[in-house]
Specification:
alpha+beta; globular
């Protein structure tokens, strides 16, 4: 059994793509994945280069982070991944932006009380969200985004992929990423993105 920790922001399409890849690997390998919320709003709160529009957008999608964190704190961490899947399916391949409906439908899909939707507009669990976020960032540094993955003591941002590979291709990528990330002196490998998120 390989222990994996995965930090995500529900609103991030790149984290969504990577999570689908990890799900595919999990179906073929003996992975024990623990899912943790993190927040692009928290990550960028002191970023002076953000436009007002981008800052407002991050504040809006913070509702999803607050919902996932609040559910984990009040009902149980076992609900994090199912709720992420239910939210993300609507947000990303579904292409929807009607937050109240997305939240209500996602809660219903995973069998949680509709009243928990109020957590999306509450700061009651912001300390827990910041702690979860911080635990991931502490492994990789501030100049990253979401997702963050930690495997066997090696942590990294990404990979940023599109579309998410499956089958043998997913395993080859997994093995390659683990190989480079396990070398303590490895820091960065990058090329410009030529496609957006491809949800298949």
């Amino acid at each position: 059994m390989t222990s994996v920790d995965f930090w995500f922001d529900p609103s991030c399409p790149w984290a969504w793509m990577t999570s689908r890849w990890v799900d595919n690997v999990s179906a073929q390998r003996d992975l024990n994945v623990t899912w943790h919320p993190m927040s692009l709003a928290v990550l960028n709160e002191n970023n002076a280069d953000l436009t007002d529009e981008r800052r407002a957008g991050l504040a809006k999608v913070l509702r999803y982070n607050r919902l996932v964190t609040g559910v984990a704190e009040e009902v149980g961490a076992e609900h994090i991944k199912p709720l992420y899947d239910a939210l993300g399916t609507r947000i990303h391949p579904g292409g929807r932006s009607d937050q109240d409906a997305i939240i209500a439908e996602a809660l219903a899909e995973v069998g949680l009380d509709a009243g928990l939707a109020a957590l999306a507009d509450s700061d009651a669990h912001d300390v827990a969200l910041r702690e979860s976020h911080g635990s991931g960032i502490a492994l990789v540094g501030q100049d990253v985004g979401t997702p963050i993955i930690a495997v066997n003591g090696a942590a990294f941002f990404g990979p940023v992929i599109s579309p998410a590979p499956s089958g043998e291709e997913a395993l080859r990528l997994w093995d390659g990423v683990l190989a480079v990330s396990s070398y303590p002196g490895f820091f960065e490998l990058k090329r410009s993105r030529t496609v957006g998120p491809i949800f298949n």
